[in-house]
Amino acid sequence: MALTERCENDKIEIIGPYKSVQVRCATIIERDGKEVARQYDRYVLQPGILDENDNLIDTDISKEETTIQAVCNSVWTSEIKEAWRQHLIENKLPSNSTQNSNVGIGSTYGSP
């Protein structure tokens, strides 16, 4: 009885005005070639983050599958990136803020 495990990105969604790319990865467990379990995980890619001078630093997508890279490159136009940069600037937390700032690149809707 051979057990195998593989991950398969089975859903890519474009979300919101800033074209966040949400990827669903299915972890599939198989016994002798027959699926016995499946679990889903998601992660979100944003166009970038701000540096200390409010310049947008593009999200590194080089380790993503080529399909995901192609989706990101097609939806993250210069106009979308600039709108996202302006959004980040407008919604910056003050440096002395006590609010939770754990939500960011790669987070899944504020999960810790």
What can you tell me about this protein's structure?
The protein has a 3-stranded antiparallel sheet. It has a two-stranded antiparallel ribbon with strand order 4-5. The C terminus is likely disordered. The protein has 2 helices and 5 strands. It has one domain. The protein has 112 residues and is an alpha+beta fold.
Mean pLDDT: 87
* Strand percentage: 35-45%
Total domain count: 1
What's the helical proportion of residues? 10-25%
| Strand order in the sheet with the most strands | 1-2-3
Distance between the termini: 37 Å
> Structural class, judged by helices and strands?
alpha+beta
* Strand elements, count: 5
Q: Characterize the main sheet.
A: 3 strands, antiparallel
Protein topology:
Blueprint: E1 3-15, E2 20-31, E3 34-45, E4 48-50, E5 56-58, H1 66-75, H2 78-90
List keywords for this structure.
disordered C terminus; alpha+beta; two-stranded antiparallel ribbon; 112 residues; elongated
Short description:
With 112 residues, this protein is of the alpha+beta class. It has 2 helices and 5 strands, in the order βββββαα.
